Amino acid sequence: MNPESRMWFYGLSKPMTADQSAQLKSMMEQFVAQWQAHGAQLAASYRIIADQCLIIAVDESQQQATGCSIDKSVHLLQDFGSSQGLDFFNRLLVFIMGSEGLEALSPAELKSRIASGDIDGNTPVINTLARTLRESGDGMIPLKDSWAAKYLS
After folding, report:
1. 76-122, pLDDT tens digit by residue?
2. pLDDT of residue 25
3. 74 and 101: one domain?
4. Cβ contacts of 39 within 8 Å, gap of 6 or more
5. pLDDT reported for residue 55
6. What is the CA radius of gyration of the chain?
7. Would residue 1 count as lying in a domain?
8. Structural domain harbouring 25
9. How far is 26 from 126, CA to CA, in rounded Å?
10. Is residue 54 a contact partner of residue 46, using CB atoms and an 8 Å limit?
11. How far is CA 82 from the centre of its chain?
């Protein structure tokens, strides 16, 4: 995809089951293949990371995503999440790469792990606020450069 492709990040507090992940993959394959804005096909793709995070991207150099088309993606995830008991919209989660892989931490958990010295400003976290694929880079940034840096003090 074009590095300037617009992207949206959705994360879960815990990984999906294998069945949920397979269902989401199937649903997303269909969705991106048919996703349109004002009748024009969107050049879209998705990626699921560790059965816990979903990134959707659209190459807007070909066709811009509109409010209505974006709403369709949001409603799709709301409906899937509701049917599966999953919440893709908890924006307070911080995703770190820990010794056992990807971990989603609430602000309270993050503060506790910082206080214990387990996490510091250099701990890699997923850049959940990146607006483009280029901005997301390899997906990880140091905690001190993320929105959650406020918990370091």
Report:
1. 999 999 999 999 999 999 999 877 889 999 999 999 999 999 999 99
2. 98
3. no
4. none
5. 95
6. 16
7. no
8. 6-84
9. 24
10. yes
11. 17
